Every structure is written in C-alpha cells, then in structure tokens.
C-alpha cells in the first residue's frame, strides 16, 4: 500500500520533470501549468491517502515555498520582488503557448468573478510586453473578456459539478476541454495588440507551438514570442553541454587547442542537424 501511494503521489512530479527538461521544444510555458497541476494533484491526494498523507502535505508546502511568486499570482496576492519565480514572464509564456492559452485556468476552479479578474490580469501582462503604451482603455480590455465571461460561468458550473461526481478520477497532465468558439478574424482587422490578443484567444487551433507561430499573422504577439521564449524552464540543456564537454576534454586530450575543443563541442551538441 505504501509503494502504491508513493507511486500515485510522485508520478506527476516525475512526468513534469521529464517534460520541463526537454531540449528541442519550448519549456518556459510549462512552468505555470505544472505548478497548477501539482497543486491540484496534492490537494486531491490529501483526501485519498492513508499512510503518506503527511508527505503529501510537506510536498504542498514545498511547492508554495519554491514557487512563491507563481502561487501568489494564482491566488491574486501581492508578489514581492524577492519571491522565487516572481517574474510575470512565466505567465506571459503560458498565455502565448497555443496548447495552454487560458485553458489551464479551469484547473484552478476559480469563481466566475475571480476567473474574469485573472484573465484581465494575464491580458494586461501581455499588453505590457507588447509595449502598447500608457493609454490603454479598461473598456477595451473588458470587451475582449466579454466573449469569455458567459462561457466561464457555464464552464465553472460544469467543472464544479464534475469535480464533485468524479473526485477519484485522475486528471491527465496538460489536458483541457476545448471550448473555443472558433471565431475567425481577418488579418486586416488586426490593428492593435488588443485585437491580436482577441484573435489569438478565439483561434480554435491548438497545434504545435513552432508551427503555429511560424504561420501566424499576429505580428506584434509574434515579436513578443521571439523575445520571451528564449527562456528555458530549467538549466538541463546547458548542463548537458558541460557533460559532453567533460567527455571531450579528457585527461588524455590536455593538449587540445581551444578552437578545436569549441568546434568539437559545437558539432557534438548539434549532431542531429548534420
């Protein structure tokens, strides 16, 4: 029983660790949904575990400490500059990943009012990144949210109801129901970042990240994507470079010239492209 509970409790942690250490895909957008998923997971597991309940509580407390900045934003609290993961850029990255957009908010089980406020905050973060200026109208922001507000009420009711009836059902990682209305917006109407955000949120496509933004006509958002997605979720990719470099620069190759060493490391790390 102990082993079974340990596997059920730690399985999402292992799966997320593998995902965020990927090298050939974007990972910055995984941080916030991962924290949300883990918080939801440990909250559910606390009521189901018999032996490892204290371990589950300690994991929950550890998540709150380690990702204090993200957790505070999720609960719409003030974030201190010295909080870990206090930078809002992780939320911007998640917002601009077509796999997540705003779908991950459902797992937080917000009330309709809190969800609307959170959406407004997320959109404002993206607008700030777009450097749209200081004179944005809050009315335009609410207009963008209006198409989601009515759906969010129905969505929250259904989520709460389904949660009550299927508490024991295990939630899969990063899988959300699609409730996009499928609105198509002409590229000619995209005259501002706000319009681009509106078009992006109403786009039903949830394809590969790179493919989506390669073909996207949302030029302002695309420029933000190019800038913020230089961030990686972990240092695993660069650690792999050091590991390979250590193999190349062995005690038997101490006389290797620096230029040759750099070229060998470069070729080894990019051998898949050759």
Automatic annotation (TrEMBL):
Record-linked Pfam families: Dimer_Tnp_hAT
Q: What is this protein called?
A: HAT C-terminal dimerisation domain-containing protein
- Species of origin reads Rotaria socialis
Q: Which domain of life is it from?
A: Eukaryota
In its UniProt record, a GO molecular function of this protein is: zinc ion binding
Report if keyword Phosphoprotein is assigned. no
InterPro entries this protein is in? HATC_C_dom (IPR008906), RNaseH-like_sf (IPR012337), ZnF_BED_domain_contain (IPR052035)
What coarse category fits the chief subcellular location reported for this protein?
A: nucleus
Q: Which compartments does it reside in?
A: Nucleus
Where does the HAT C-terminal dimerisation domain lie? 216-268
The entry's keywords? Metal-binding, Nucleus, Zinc, Zinc-finger
Where do transmembrane segments lie in this chain? none
Q: Looking at the UniProt record for this protein, which Gene Ontology cellular component terms does it annotate, in alphabetical order?
A: nucleus
């Amino acid at each position: 029983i102990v082993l079974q509970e340990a596997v059920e409790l730690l399985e999402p942690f292992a799966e997320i660790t593998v995902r965020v250490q990927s090298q050939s895909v974007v990972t910055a957008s995984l941080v916030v949904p991962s924290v949300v998923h883990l918080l939801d997971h440990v909250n559910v597991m606390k009521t189901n575990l018999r032996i490892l309940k204290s371990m589950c509580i300690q994991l929950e407390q550890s998540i709150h400490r380690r990702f204090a900045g993200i957790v505070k934003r999720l609960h719409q609290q003030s974030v201190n500059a010295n909080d870990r993961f206090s930078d809002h850029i992780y939320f911007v990255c998640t917002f601009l990943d077509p796999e997540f957009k705003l779908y991950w908010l459902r797992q937080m089980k917000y009330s309709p009012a809190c969800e609307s406020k959170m959406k407004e905050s997320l959109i404002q973060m993206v607008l700030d990144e777009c450097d749209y200026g200081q004179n944005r109208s809050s009315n335009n922001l609410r207009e963008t949210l209006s198409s989601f507000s009515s759906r969010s009420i129905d969505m929250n009711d259904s989520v709460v109801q389904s949660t009550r009836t299927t508490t024991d059902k295990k939630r899969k990682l990063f899988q959300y129901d699609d409730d996009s209305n499928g609105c198509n917006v002409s590229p000619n109407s995209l005259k501002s970042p706000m319009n681009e955000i509106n078009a992006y949120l109403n786009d039903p496509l949830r394809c590969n990240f790179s493919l989506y933004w390669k073909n996207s006509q949302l030029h302002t958002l695309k420029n933000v994507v190019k800038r913020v997605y230089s961030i990686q979720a972990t240092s695993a990719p660069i650690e792999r470079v050091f590991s390979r470099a250590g193999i190349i620069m062995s005690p038997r190759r101490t006389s290797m010239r620096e230029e040759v060493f750099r070229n060998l490391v470069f070729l080894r790390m990019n051998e898949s492209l050759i």
